[in-house]
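Need a sequence for this fold. Nothing fancy.
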């Protein structure tokens, strides 16, 4: 059996299609890593993680375009930043950030460093959920 360019192309095409279909099928099952606040370090910058904790305070920025949420999971505290676009999405969905105050929530966000402290940026309006 002779291996031709056409056969190699067909095998590569079939393999690629199977891989893409597999990624699409399993994409909804991929969850970010659950982490405690005390374990967040500079090594985690850029990672998307899930943190469960109690919302202790909610403050508007001076411009009013974003919010800062202080989250406490018992191992530490971290600020969660909610930008204007995400706030608008939350409001459109009928969710008021103040309803999360003093409640346990699970958030998904990206870790950043700002003024030598670790912070989370809320991924989107679906990335904050009440936990019973």
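Here you go.
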């Amino acid at each position: 059996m002779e291996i031709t360019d056409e056969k190699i192309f067909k095998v590569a095409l079939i393999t690629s299609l199977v891989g893409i279909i597999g990624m699409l099928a399993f994409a909804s099952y991929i969850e970010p890593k659950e982490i405690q606040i005390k374990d967040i370090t500079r090594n985690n910058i850029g990672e998307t993680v899930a943190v469960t904790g109690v919302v202790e305070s909610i403050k508007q920025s001076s411009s009013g375009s974003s919010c800062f949420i202080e989250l406490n999971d018992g191992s530490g505290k971290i600020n969660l930043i909610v930008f204007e676009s995400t706030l608008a999405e939350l409001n459109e969905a009928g969710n008021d950030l103040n309803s999360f105050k003093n409640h346990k929530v699970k958030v998904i966000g990206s870790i950043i460093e700002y003024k030598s402290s670790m912070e989370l940026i809320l991924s989107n309006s679906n990335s904050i959920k009440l936990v019973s």
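For context: Residues 1-30 form one domain.
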